[in-house]
Amino acid sequence: MPEPLLEVAGVSKSFWGIQALADVDLNVYPGEIHAITGENGAGKSTLMKIIAGGEAPDQGSIRFSGRAIAMIHQELLPFPDLSVSENIFMGRELCRRIPGWIDRGRRDCEARELLSDVGVSIDPRSRMGDLTVAEQQSVEIAKALARCADLVIMDEPTSALSDRESEALFRIITGLKQRGAAILYISHRMQEVLRLADTVTVMRDGRRVGTCPASDLNEPLLIEMMVGRALNPASKRKSTPGETVLEVRDLGRPPHFEGVSFSLHRGEILGLSGLMGAGRSDVASAIFGLTPATRGTILLNGRPVLVRSPAAALAHGIAMVTEDRKEFGFIPDMSVKENVTLSSLARFGWGPFIRSDVEATVAEQQMQRFNMRAAGRDQPVKFLSGGNQQKVAIARALLADPEILILDEPTRGIDVAAKTEIYSIITDLARAGKAILLISSEMNEILSLSDRIIVMREGVAVAELVPDTTSPEEILRYAIPS
Amino acid sequence: MPSRADGAPSPEKSFVLESNAGPARQSRVTAARRKPWPAEATLAIAVALLMAALSLLRPNFLNLANLVNVFRQISINGILAVGVTSVLLTGGVDLSLGSVVALSGVVAASFAHPAQHAVFVPVALGILAGAACGALNGIVVTRGRVAPFIATLGMMTAARGLALLLSGGRPVSNLSPSFTRIGAGDVASVPFPVVIFGAVGLITWVMLTRMQLGRYIYAVGGNENAARASGLHVRSVKMAAYTLCGAMAGLAGVVLASRITTGQPNAGVGYELDAIAAVVIGGTRLSGGAGGVGGAMLGALLIGVINNGLDLLNVSSYYQQIVKGLIIVGAVWLDRSKQK
Hints:
The complex is a heterodimer. Chain A has 2 domains: 6-227, 3-Layer(aba) Sandwich (Rossmann fold); 244-479, P-loop containing nucleotide triphosphate hydrolases (Rossmann fold, 3-Layer(aba) Sandwich). Chain A is 33% helix and 26% strand. Chain A has helices at 44-52, 84-88, 104-118, 133-146, 163-178, 190-196, 219-227, 280-288, 310-315, 325-329, 336-341, 356-369, 386-399, 416-431, 443-449, 472-479, and strands at residues 6-15, 18-28, 33-38, 59-64, 69-72, 151-155, 182-186, 199-204, 207-213, 244-253, 257-265, 269-274, 295-300, 303-305, 318-321, 349-350, 353-354, 404-408, 435-439, 452-457, 460-465. In chain A, the strands form 5 sheets. Chain A has a 6-stranded mixed beta sheet with strand order 5-6-7-3-8-9, with helices on both faces. In chain A, strands 15-18-19-12-20-21 form a 6-stranded mixed beta sheet, with helices on both faces. Chain A has a 4-stranded antiparallel beta sheet with strand order 11-10-13-14, covered by helices on one side. In chain A, β13 and β14 form a beta hairpin. In chain A, α3 crosses α4 (133-146). The radius of gyration of chain A is 25 Å and the shape is globular. The relative contact order of chain A is 0.11. Chain B is an all-alpha fold. In chain B, 74% of the residues lie in helices and 1% in strands. Chain B has helices at residues 11-34, 39-57, 64-89, 97-110, 120-142, 148-167, 177-184, 192-210, 212-222, 224-229, 234-259, 271-281, 293-312, 317-339; strands at 186-187, 190-191. In chain B, α4 (97-110) packs antiparallel against α5 (120-142). The two termini of chain B are 41 Å apart. The chains are: A alpha/beta, B mainly alpha. At the A-B interface, α9, α10, β17 and α14 of A face α1, α9 and α10 of B.
């Protein structure tokens, strides 16, 4: 066995008290394509960030004996208005004898060579923003070559590529391997992983579940490793869904999602499952009016309604707790009280004025009801933990007294105790007759909470399942693009 | 909503609540102790110290006449600062203030010739002209999605042009005594402009701290996306802020025209920057969401006291500008280094 190029030993990392990685070991050898796979939130991205030096591990060590590591992100970060060659040599420009004077001729010439090494014919003088995503990726790889990177990390590189473009990428990756570089390839597309990789490491809940040669694996085996056998559904809830409250017909906002139809009943929890980018959040945002749908109809209690903004949605009795808590969830400098009452201030008002005594009482009630841990109702929300911030967002949505509540990844990045509390809040709400649309990437969560599950894949609803008769394996089979 | 009747609280639950009540009350005390020292307090102390120092150096600083004079001098800038506070809190900016002051002064003066109209007509029209400019700024910012800097820069140029056009490039003079009394008169030896400054400040303070609109202004500046997702009409909130700001610039223009007894189309150049400086010295964040009108008023006072003090100390006005510049940067630098 040759010396490993990269040796990760016992790496642990936690954010805000949540274990993102626990005691992960990983060896990568020169000339190896090593795939890392696992469900959303398994810790793949955190591990890559630590390897690339973007985050420091809490524990453990990383030994890298090569020259350079290049990381190709899922979302490419090019300078769209600069030329291809300028992008390739960004930060290490080729200079003439006078410092600061760029040798453009040599730059374009070397860029052309690098691009032909990668095996693509792109004019190094063309504008980066005019290239397709696949071409931009090739440029990123050329950039890695220019830096003499002997470890290239690729995070879901095919997520935005067509089949043909993916094939071209695989050829490039194989070429890199033949030059002796090691590739860490992150993907949850099973067929890709099995075809391309020499070695596969599966991660789950921040731990390495196993590492084996790709030749020893097949799809069902891989799914089993990803999901894990230890699924312990939380206490089942007897549900008696009532009449239809919300119905969407042929809802769409291409290219994000299209032709989505379903109905939601009083007292029901409808789970929306699927991989990241499958369009689940887009459907939710459309119903809530954050990014209105361009096609289809939304019917509330049988009557078609137009939802062009969250304000309109709230007026119709639709509330939502968004996935991106930082961006949409709360006003960081405002207090717990002010955040909780923001959507329903008019109700605690006296004309245009705020009745501060009523507001304070209401805020205290909500803090008790959700067991929020804050230094007081006047503490700015930015100082709370993720779980408590999420409770603030849920409290605000509920205080608007909605009939329909959309919860998008309500427990993401939250510690276990707060998760359990949020689960019981959700089931209580359903019992009280709210109609709930639950989006979650956690199998456990969606299986144990939902009455029905709709699986989305690439912007289309592909299956409707019942938790009692389905399994994580079945859901994944529908969710994963083949 | 699940009602209380959903189930009688189990003893376990009530235990949890009680065990929380203790630490919660305790930590509220620590939170109060940890609560960041308000920028207003620092500023008030700075102003007080400065005034004490000045009165030692020049005993006539504390003369009632001089103090009244200081306040009279800051009242225009103070009114503008109060107005622009709301805009800055939404994360916007208004560079058109100075031009709007000139325009509304010209408009008001044109209707304030002796025996022409009752005094409230020119006053109302001046304020209305300002409010119209502000509303137009708001429309361009919210509907046209033009950056506030650009939108109000355009208004700054256009409003100046309109002021010159309406006045034919000449000062509008020969104003009725009832109109010029606004700038020259007083109540119990407090000049009218100071009374107006105080009233405008108080009203805006009530709006920002006690009314829904104020809360929404902070929310929009604090996190626009979250404000929208909370069901706020973000555009209307911004419209309100710009329109109010314009109306107050209109009011400042009326006061100025009355005090100098002419509608001066070239008046108010650079006033917007003095106003923004006062607000920023007062602790309001340029990116929005934090700050307040009290700080803005104190900021205007600080600038006024320094100007007056340097006058009394016979410091050349050239130095005065340098000192003012240093104070603007220094105050914000201090404030930011405290935050980190």
